[in-house]
């Protein structure tokens, strides 16, 4: 039981470290959130251990739950960053990362920040033989900002046949 708790603690620290790095490098808001992290509170009922997870935002040393306190764009960016951190922590040997409409509800500054962060992830993981990044988007400017011509081995543009 102690080994599982220790493993959980180590993984949460690793995930939160990656989340912090991604948030600082990606979020382009008006300095209203310094960083975000996942907190876990554990409960023991009838010999079973369970964890309740919540996302908190930190500003000037104060922690607040994000639920009900952030914009739609902040929620989307937070969700993307958490998924990227989980993939980095648990899915390195998998190599496939798929994002569907990642720029929904993001303002231009945060779209730019996300494009830069994803470009950095591609640079770091490019040497991994099985790495694949699949992005489904209608936002062609986002793809241009990511440098699709520099990083994409393949690029498909799908259009609707009007007939």
Would you spell out the secondary-structure blueprint of this structure?
Layout: H1 2-26, E1 35-45, E2 48-59, E3 62-65, H2 72-90, E4 96-100, H3 108-125, E5 132-136, H4 140-146, H5 148-151
Parallel strand pairs: 4-5
Antiparallel strand pairs: 1-2, 2-3
Helix pairs in contact: 1-2, 3-4
Shape, principal axes of CA atoms: globular
Strand order in the sheet with the most strands: 1-2-3
Global mean pLDDT: 85
Helix content estimate: 40-55%
Rg, Cα atoms, Å: 18 Å
The helix/strand series, from N terminus to C terminus, equals HEEEHEHEHH
Beta-strand fraction estimate: 15-25%
End-to-end gap? 62 Å
Give the beta-strand count: 5
What is the helix tally?
5
Low-confidence stretches: none
Structural class, from helix and strand content?
Answer: alpha+beta
Brief descriptors of the model:
globular, 163 residues, 23% strand, alpha+beta, 5 strands, two-stranded parallel ribbon
